[in-house]
Design goal:
The structure holds two protein chains of two kinds. Chain A is globular, with a radius of gyration of 21 Å. Chain A has one domain (4-381): Up-down Bundle (Formate dehydrogenase/DMSO reductase fold). In chain A, α2 packs across α15 (357-380) and α3 packs parallel to α15 (357-380). By secondary structure, chain A is mostly helical. Chain A has helices at 4-7, 18-40, 56-68, 71-81, 91-112, 121-124, 133-161, 166-181, 183-204, 221-248, 254-281, 290-311, 313-316, 319-343, 357-380; strands at residues 8-9, 384-385. Chain B has two domains: 2-30 and 270-302; 39-263, Alpha-Beta Plaits. Chain B is 33% helix and 14% strand. Chain B is built from nine helices and eleven strands. Chain B has a three-stranded mixed β-sheet. In chain B, strands 2-3 form a two-stranded antiparallel ribbon. In chain B, α1 crosses α7 (267-278) and α1 packs antiparallel against α8 (283-302). In chain B, 44% of the residues are buried. The chains are: A mainly alpha, B alpha+beta. At the A-B interface, α2, α5, α7, α8 and α9 of A face α1, α3, α4, β6 and α7 of B.
Chain lengths: 394, 314
């Protein structure tokens, strides 16, 4: 039995608290709306149209949702590639958040796909594969979700290994050693796949080129999306770690997050500077006007503000400011994704789009389910580090 | 350690440079040309009288339902291409100047929709160049709709089992029964070409081989200089070329034919995608995987025995 079983412990405590029930209620409302969608079609619950075929399900649930799931990717790069082992306690909760982000993005995709029952053909019908960037995204996201499951499987094995049944215990220990033996290539795959599909998510929006606002139409979109995903990953890890310590009375990781903030802050500065230089070099500075101009400035300035908070010596080491910095960084980076997939796409004056209520319910339901499952899992499985205190209120 | 990190960064930088170089060389990739047997239509705004017979004929030939939304539930009156309408006549009017315009799939030489499609559910016929739809491989992702600059593919949002709806140049009617007509112009027997072209009382829209239609369009421009906008055929080179060609007596952008330049719609996206993944097939991802695995392996081994105990959990 390796040492980390004593380090990672379930939080425990009552599951059906009031906030948890509220989350379940929101998720249920989303499920009802989704049921209507499956019975009566996408038009019955959404404002999607032939002008705006993609709305918040794609822009928020899938494109932002998978980037929320990049916490595992971002921390994985720091811990295993840059070899900074001290961030290790952040890995497991980050991988859980990643699995939830990707798992629920897959759910959102099934809601959004008009002919979802044909989805199984995509990985199977190799002879029909095109060079569409979306195919790359689809295959990579599906594979990565499986990789995340494998990466998180020690959690289940540890739980089973601590159980009563000796047969289960043996199986669990076998599973644990299997994962440990294949650790290197599974992890390498876990870092390769997000690099591929997060950049391809940027490539995807090059195809609607003629109808894209020039500020968002650049062949550098794949690189912008890749770095943006890493930034979102850092922001989410900070938020999730702080939330866990506040909600479950865990020891705070403030010092660790403070030094992680330096990496995140400088990466954010680099992203925004590159974004502006690219626009300037392409001679598109004149396009920064009107509502689109404001959207552009917001997605450039918000990461800079977040970076300033995360980098300033006075604020970096304080938990409250770390959270504020992470929230600003999160909003800025998420905005870039929503801008690219919704705001920058202009199908002409005949069309307009604002999500319908049931459409919003499905998105909210998915987010609520994500938080609810996170809470349920950290309470029952060994995800977070440190001794479990009795007071678990959420 | 510092040396190691520097060498790692060097390795990653070299990989990045290789990918960038791949992307640049892919830019030089040859542009697609229309297949030798490319079929198409030629529409001339100056001949169309807006009778909409083609709209009715299209609905009959394709077994499409009536769109009665604008007709008060009584008659078929579509106001745009939609999930029940593959072909439509619209009116542009500005002061004295007016023009009808027919809209349907342009059957691009290098179509954005087909480039977007994951399993070639939308693809070009290798002989005729018709952009065909096969729902068997369609997952309903609607990326084709995002990718089409002419806003042509439509989706059945109202159905639980929806399909994409678009003009397929009546390919279900076409049989190989063409014969050379007068002037070397290939003629097609009745019932074996697009319904819209067959019923047009003014021959405002005609069906035929793309090369012959292009020659006919240029003949008209030569015969009546100044009559047509910019004395040019829309679709000869626009967006990499389309198989449906337009002659217009009003500016093209007024009748919904955007200025797309000569670059095929998918070119930028494909230059990037091909450059990274297919130029040297899968070299970039496989190479990155090898580098990552090597670095992780080395880092893991460098850890002390005590730390290695803690490892194993990814």
């Amino acid at each position: 039995m390796s040492a980390h079983a004593e380090v990672h412990v379930p939080v425990g405590g009552r599951l059906m608290t009031r906030p948890f029930v509220a989350l379940l209620a929101v998720a249920l409302a989303g499920a009802v709306a989704a049921a209507v969608r499956f019975l009566n079609g996408i038009g019955a619950v959404s404002n999607l149209s032939n002008g705006y075929p993609w709305g918040i399900w794609i822009a928020i649930d899938v494109v932002v949702g998978t980037a929320i799931g990049c916490g595992g990717y971002a921390v994985g790069i720091v811990v295993y590639v840059l070899n900074k082992g001290r961030y290790h306690p952040l890995v497991r909760p980050a991988v859980l958040t990643s699995l939830l982000g990707y798992g629920l993005a897959v759910v959102a995709v099934v809601v959004d796909l008009g002919r979802f029952w044909g989805l199984w053909k995509v990985p199977i019908y190799v002879w029909r594969w095109s060079h569409s960037p979306q195919l790359e995204v689809a295959l990579c996201v599906a594979t990565y979700t499986l990789v995340l499951l494998v990466e998180l499987s020690p959690v289940l094995f540890e739980k089973l290994a601590a159980g009563a049944s000796s047969g289960l215990r043996r199986t669990a220990e076998k599973g644990l050693s299997l994962v440990e033996r294949n650790f290197v290539w599974v992890l390498a795959l876990g870092l390769l796949l997000p690099t591929m599909h997060q950049s391809s998510l940027g490539t995807m929006m090059l195809l609607p080129g003629p109808r894209m606002h020039p500020l968002w139409l650049t062949p550098w979109l794949p690189l912008l999306f890749l770095v943006n995903a890493i930034l979102m990953g850092f922001a989410v890890v900070t938020l999730e770690a702080t939330f866990s310590s506040a909600a479950f009375g865990r020891p705070r990781e403030t010092a660790m997050l403070g030094s992680l903030s330096r990496i995140a802050g400088w990466t954010a500065v680099g992203w925004s500077v590159f974004r502006v230089i690219e626009v300037a070099a392409a001679g598109k500075l004149g396009q920064i006007r009107g509502a689109s101009g404001i959207a552009f400035l917001a997605e450039v300035l918000l990461p800079l503000v977040g970076a300033a908070i995360l980098l300033a010596g006075a604020t970096r080491t304080r938990a409250a400011w770390q959270v504020r910095g992470a929230i600003v960084l999160f909003l800025g980076t998420a905005l870039h994704r929503v801008d690219t997939y919704l705001v920058a796409f202009t199908p002409g004056p005949a069309f307009s789009y604002f999500p319908a209520v049931p459409e919003l319910l499905i998105t909210f339901g998915i987010i609520a389910a994500e938080v609810a499952i996170y809470i349920a899992v950290v309470k029952t499985f060994p995800i977070l580090q440190g001794p479990a205190p009795a007071k678990a209120t959420y | 350690m510092a040396m190691d990190r520097r060498s790692l960064i060097k390795t990653l930088a070299a990989g990045g440079a290789a990918v960038a170089a791949g992307a640049t060389t892919a830019t030089a990739a040859l542009r697609k040309t229309a297949p030798p047997g490319a079929m198409g239509m030629l529409y001339d705004t100056s001949l169309c009288i807006g009778c909409k017979t083609c709209v009715v004929a299209c609905k009959q030939a394709n077994d499409m339902p009536a769109d009665t939304t604008a007709g008060g539930g009584l008659w078929d009156a579509p106001n745009d291409l939609n999930s029940k309408t593959k072909n439509i006549i619209k009116l542009y009017r500005e002061g004295e100047r007016q023009s009808y315009v027919k809209q349907q799939c342009m059957h691009c030489v290098d179509p954005g929709c087909a480039s977007a499609c994951m399993l070639h559910s939308l693809q070009k016929d290798k002989v005729t160049g018709v952009v065909m739809y096969d729902p068997a491989y369609c997952v309903g992702c609607r990326y084709c709709q995002m990718a089409c600059p002419f806003n042509v593919p439509k989706f059945e949002f109202e159905k639980a089992a929806p399909k994409i709806v678009k003009c397929e140049l009546c390919r279900h009617r076409i049989k190989d029964a063409a014969a050379k007509g007068p002037g070397g112009f290939t003629r097609y027997p009745k019932g074996q070409g697009p319904a819209c072209c067959e019923v047009c009382p003014r021959d405002a829209v005609i069906y035929g081989r793309r090369d012959e239609l292009l020659a006919e369009a240029k003949r008209r421009i030569a015969a009546w200089p100044g009559k047509y906008h910019k004395d040019r055929v829309y679709g000869e080179f626009d967006a990499g070329g389309t198989q449906v060609l337009y002659l217009s007596h009003v500016p093209f952008d007024k009748i919904g034919l955007p200025d797309l330049g000569d670059k095929p719609v998918p070119e930028t996206a494909y230059t990037v995608q091909e450059g990274i993944y297919y130029k040297v097939p899968f070299a970039a991802p496989v190479g990155l995987f090898a580098v990552l695995a090597a670095v992780i392996y080395r880092n893991k081994r460098a850890e002390s025995v005590g730390a290695a105990e803690r490892g194993g959990q990814p």
